[in-house]
Amino acid sequence: MSEMQNLYLVVPLAPLAGAILAGLFGKAIGRTGAHVATILGVAVALFASILIYQDVQAGNTFNGTVYTWATSGNLSLEVGFLIDELTVMMMLVVTFVSLMVHLYTIGYMQEDPGYQRFFSYISLFTFSMLMLVMSNNFLQLFFGWEAVGLVSYLLIGFWYTRPTAIFANMKAFLVNRVGDFGFLLGIGLVAAHTGSLDYAEVFAQADALSAKTIELFPGAPWLLISVICICLFIGAMGKSAQVPLHVWLPDSMEGPTPISALIHAATMVTAGIFMVARMSPLFELSETALSFVIVIGATTALFMGFLGIVQNDIKRVVAYSTLSQLGYMTVALGVSAYSAAVFHLMTHAFFKALLFLGAGSVIIGMHHDQDMRNMGGLWKYMKITWFTSLVGSLALIGFPFLSGFFSKDSIIEAVHFSTIPGAGYAYFCVIVGVFVTAFYSFRMYFLVFHGKERFGQAHHDHHGDHDDEEPSDDHHHGLAPGQKPHESPWVVTVPLILLAIPSVLIGFFTIEPMLFGDWFKRAIHVTASHDTIGQFAEHFHGAAAMAMHGFTTLPFFLAMAGVVLAWFFYLVKPEIPAAIMRTFKPLHTLLDNKYYFDKFNEVVFAGGSRLLGQGLWKGGDQGVIDGLIVNGTARTISLVAQASRLLQSGHIYMYAFSMIIGLCVLLSLWFSVV
Amino acid sequence: MTGMPLLSLAIWVPIVGGLLVLATGSDRNAPMARSMALLTSVIGFLVTIPLFTGFDNSTSAMQFVELARWIPAFNVHYYLGVDGLSVLFVLLNSFVTILVVVAGWEVIKTKVAQYMAAFLIMSGLLNGIFSSLDGLLFYVFFEASLIPLYLIIGVWGGANRVYAAFKFFLYTLAGSLLMLVALIYLFMQSGSFSILDWHELPIAMGAQNLLFWAFLIAFAVKVPMWPVHTWLPDAHVEAPTGGSVVLAAIALKLGAYGFLRFTLPIVPDASQAMAPMMIVLSLIAVVYIGFVALVQADMKKLVAYSSIAHMGFVTLGFFIFNPLGVEGALVQMISHGFVSGAMFLCIGVLYDRMHSRQIADYGGVVNTMPKFAAFFMLFAMANAGLPGTSGFVGEFMVVLGAVQYSFWVAFAAATTLILGAAYTLWMYKRVVFGAIGNDKVAKLEDINGREFAFLAVLAACTLIMGIYPLPVTEVMHASVNELLQHVATSKL
């Protein structure tokens, strides 16, 4: 066993070593050294994860401490690993996508002066994310949780001279901190009522917890477990960008595209989903919390999808699509279909990383122009990017046989079977969401790859869309008149192909073990009365049959309707969307302003805090405390003191030191050994 | 181990060394003064290391005890000793003294010997405070330590230094006079000045309440707790960098330490009765001061306010009376020594180059000072309590302890997660990120070897303590348990 335990350590430490090398010794090892070191680190982590996966499949799980971090009272705070089916799946996803993104970065960041720094950050991210998923306790979970937030902050602000980037990264960190605030309180409640932060020990006491109540407001006892779960879920809402804490994710697109794929689509933002799945023994005990989860998730799934329709920046479309898909996963958690949520997390990681990297490839081809209104007809020039993006889009809209179909359909079915309050609303949202997803996805696909070639012309004047991807504003971007886009280098296209393969296949081959087999039996706990996946299992007769049946269901027709409508609107009659926009001006304004969440936060929270701070400072500190209480006294005394200071005329320090010497003399004068 | 009077060495090596440095006189001998000061501070730190390596974690009894008669007429002793509550502060203080000497190396150009001497003497006096077990001896050190700090601000400070120095001096002096009365009362009751004797002394509730207030006023000013905190921002703004570092890293800990050494064990019943008030005051410090810090335009003021908020966590941890709270608060005190010290040093690095502390005068510093920006980022994150840095450990433990006490107390305390990040990162954004703000920023030079050295040492401390705080918490267990035992036992 100890060999395996060493291997567990290798997984997070190899990327960390790479990060340190590239970060601290970037100048010494140069660009090549930096990418070789970090890629090697992540490759080692992936390889070790595969070995661990085989070991877990052989039935060997692990739960143990690496070292004791601190102790206090009866509480022991530890760093340790829990290696089971859920962990190892996350490890594979994280290390695989991370490796693809590392590779891709060689091409994408080629000309950037911060090359080594970038590699250092993404490897540091990989380390943090692995610590998060491999944790066997809440402390380390929180450590990884905030550490990925830090790296996300550093990477969103990677181009630190751009005002939008350094605004976006601070916003991301602060909004995440709001989530972490709830998360920390949840962890505190767990520690206070179970005396432990170790998952296994806490889960063992879950039933005892469910009997307790807590009186947050006098005379209104709440189920303790509900309060704990809602607090923990607030953490998930921050990290996994659920309404109303979603506002940071679209702005995070200010970061370079590789990290949008790795952090803001495939891995970090799914940490909240992973966490809730991990906590299934707790969430199962609170229907209140589950209802809360469903409503938040369903709202995110549908209403963030709508926003994807009005975006013109290619990355922002994918960002809103990510928000909406995270909503789907959250809904799945709420209906106790944890395995479906994690399954969708996995398929989504592949096809969404693919879509982002595809978008990045388009951006390279367009010479860092991200506005879809300047694209069109790119399929001729970028064959690999075009085809892999089509695959990614089809997987996203849930086209039968592709991976997204299996995971999304499972969620829809599970919602259908659920009886938890809120499930009806959620069913409506996820069904309508299918249409919306298909519409915005293929709107993007058609605008970018088909139709009239709109590049190389005089630029539309689209300022105010935050749509330039340039490190410095003086650099010209976009294609010059007459210039044609070109396919990206192999370091970019190979990861696209490698991600397209699982986007197509992985759902078909893994749905049976992951959802209906006993792959997650030990890691995920579902109460019999909530077992929506169990009910769905009765209708499941193999992946092929499910996919064939998928051609005849409502979601398929809705998705096709979305695709056809997008085709009609953006290829056949491009004047229609403009006409609709004019007719429904208020609606468009609402969507264009993202439901005014940002405005609200800026005015109420940011503005309000500054106003309050000024008031407390000028009014409280300077006005009342200093002005009324201190100053009268201080002014009088300082007048007297200044007068007496004149007598010493500049030798005040000598005077004071003589006081200390006097003190020494006094001490020794009376000094006599007992 | 037992042969050497280690605590006496920790106190008197810096003081005697300081006096020798002072004897070098005028600035013609400045190079010699600097070297002597560095040597003294290093020796001063080395003699404290056996205090940690030889410390017995298993007992709450005083260790490295030295006892000698001082003023027999009043039963006053030269009585020294440390336990798990105090030993780390002796080390921290001696360590920070080295940094302060190095930080002032080229920056202080006038009255160098006096400057170095002031810091060395203060270092010895502060060690005296943390190791005194005799009430009067404690008081003497406590008051004497005011003088060098007063001078540091008043002589080497900024434009408005006289006002700030007087405000600081009078504020704290007024507070501690009441403590003297309390000490004399305790002597009259017990016939002894031994603090440990006072821990066992039965006291009626009425007297306990009076004593509590006398101590509270003395210590609350030092911490400083809301609403007697307004001297601190002024003192910091006017103090030279080294003064701010010592003020934040060590001097602020005196008040908090006083609560542990005097208030809680001597008047436990009054402490229990007053705990709700103390908790409310602490929470006001965290929330109210957090908002005030947000709107500061002066970097030093901002960090000063952030110190007050962090110290609010410390007093909160003490008065929730559970091991997590008290130990978390102690860890927070140590960590704050590193982090706020580092923050002030970072601001000092900028000030030495630009002669401005105004956030608005900066912008885009990262373009010209990338190494500095990396260090500053680490310390800013530690200040915002990021896990993996020392700033997280104490906050996490105190919040966990606070949930045991009351959900809403923890709720209010945990807002620091948002507020602390907001004021720290907003400042960082405006100062460091962005395009180059002006010509002066464009001409900035990155940190030199000396600056790199002290920032790197602090960065290492911050990270090590964040990743592996166990050795620090283990030192405290026995003494904290003993302390909580005292608090739980009525003296009526």
TrEMBL record, chain A:
<dbReference type="Pfam" id="PF00662">
    <property type="entry name" value="Proton_antipo_N"/>
</dbReference>
<feature type="transmembrane region" description="Helical">
    <location>
        <begin position="317"/>
        <end position="339"/>
    </location>
</feature>
<dbReference type="GO" id="GO:0015990">
    <property type="term" value="P:electron transport coupled proton transport"/>
</dbReference>
<dbReference type="InterPro" id="IPR001750">
    <property type="entry name" value="ND/Mrp_TM"/>
</dbReference>
<feature type="transmembrane region" description="Helical">
    <location>
        <begin position="425"/>
        <end position="446"/>
    </location>
</feature>
<keyword id="KW-0812">Transmembrane</keyword>
<feature type="region of interest" description="Disordered">
    <location>
        <begin position="459"/>
        <end position="486"/>
    </location>
</feature>
<dbReference type="InterPro" id="IPR018393">
    <property type="entry name" value="NADHpl_OxRdtase_5_subgr"/>
</dbReference>
<dbReference type="InterPro" id="IPR003945">
    <property type="entry name" value="NU5C-like"/>
</dbReference>
<protein>
    <submittedName>
        <fullName>NADH-quinone oxidoreductase subunit L</fullName>
    </submittedName>
</protein>
<feature type="transmembrane region" description="Helical">
    <location>
        <begin position="141"/>
        <end position="160"/>
    </location>
</feature>
<dbReference type="GO" id="GO:0042773">
    <property type="term" value="P:ATP synthesis coupled electron transport"/>
</dbReference>
<feature type="transmembrane region" description="Helical">
    <location>
        <begin position="118"/>
        <end position="135"/>
    </location>
</feature>
<feature type="transmembrane region" description="Helical">
    <location>
        <begin position="384"/>
        <end position="405"/>
    </location>
</feature>
<feature type="transmembrane region" description="Helical">
    <location>
        <begin position="345"/>
        <end position="364"/>
    </location>
</feature>
<dbReference type="GO" id="GO:0003954">
    <property type="term" value="F:NADH dehydrogenase activity"/>
</dbReference>
<feature type="transmembrane region" description="Helical">
    <location>
        <begin position="259"/>
        <end position="277"/>
    </location>
</feature>
<feature type="transmembrane region" description="Helical">
    <location>
        <begin position="554"/>
        <end position="572"/>
    </location>
</feature>
<feature type="transmembrane region" description="Helical">
    <location>
        <begin position="652"/>
        <end position="673"/>
    </location>
</feature>
<feature type="transmembrane region" description="Helical">
    <location>
        <begin position="490"/>
        <end position="511"/>
    </location>
</feature>
<keyword id="KW-0472">Membrane</keyword>
<dbReference type="GO" id="GO:0008137">
    <property type="term" value="F:NADH dehydrogenase (ubiquinone) activity"/>
</dbReference>
From TrEMBL, chain B:
<keyword id="KW-1133">Transmembrane helix</keyword>
<comment type="similarity">
    <text>Belongs to the complex I subunit 4 family.</text>
</comment>
<feature type="transmembrane region" description="Helical">
    <location>
        <begin position="333"/>
        <end position="351"/>
    </location>
</feature>
<feature type="transmembrane region" description="Helical">
    <location>
        <begin position="405"/>
        <end position="426"/>
    </location>
</feature>
<feature type="transmembrane region" description="Helical">
    <location>
        <begin position="6"/>
        <end position="24"/>
    </location>
</feature>
<dbReference type="InterPro" id="IPR003918">
    <property type="entry name" value="NADH_UbQ_OxRdtase"/>
</dbReference>
<feature type="transmembrane region" description="Helical">
    <location>
        <begin position="302"/>
        <end position="321"/>
    </location>
</feature>
<feature type="domain" description="NADH:quinone oxidoreductase/Mrp antiporter transmembrane">
    <location>
        <begin position="134"/>
        <end position="416"/>
    </location>
</feature>
<feature type="transmembrane region" description="Helical">
    <location>
        <begin position="85"/>
        <end position="105"/>
    </location>
</feature>
<protein>
    <submittedName>
        <fullName>NADH-quinone oxidoreductase subunit M</fullName>
        <ecNumber>1.6.5.11</ecNumber>
    </submittedName>
</protein>
<feature type="transmembrane region" description="Helical">
    <location>
        <begin position="452"/>
        <end position="470"/>
    </location>
</feature>
<dbReference type="GO" id="GO:0012505">
    <property type="term" value="C:endomembrane system"/>
</dbReference>
<dbReference type="GO" id="GO:0016020">
    <property type="term" value="C:membrane"/>
</dbReference>
<dbReference type="InterPro" id="IPR001750">
    <property type="entry name" value="ND/Mrp_TM"/>
</dbReference>
<dbReference type="GO" id="GO:0008137">
    <property type="term" value="F:NADH dehydrogenase (ubiquinone) activity"/>
</dbReference>
<dbReference type="GO" id="GO:0015990">
    <property type="term" value="P:electron transport coupled proton transport"/>
</dbReference>
<feature type="transmembrane region" description="Helical">
    <location>
        <begin position="273"/>
        <end position="295"/>
    </location>
</feature>
<dbReference type="Pfam" id="PF00361">
    <property type="entry name" value="Proton_antipo_M"/>
</dbReference>
<feature type="transmembrane region" description="Helical">
    <location>
        <begin position="210"/>
        <end position="232"/>
    </location>
</feature>
<feature type="transmembrane region" description="Helical">
    <location>
        <begin position="168"/>
        <end position="188"/>
    </location>
</feature>
<keyword id="KW-0472">Membrane</keyword>
<keyword id="KW-0812">Transmembrane</keyword>
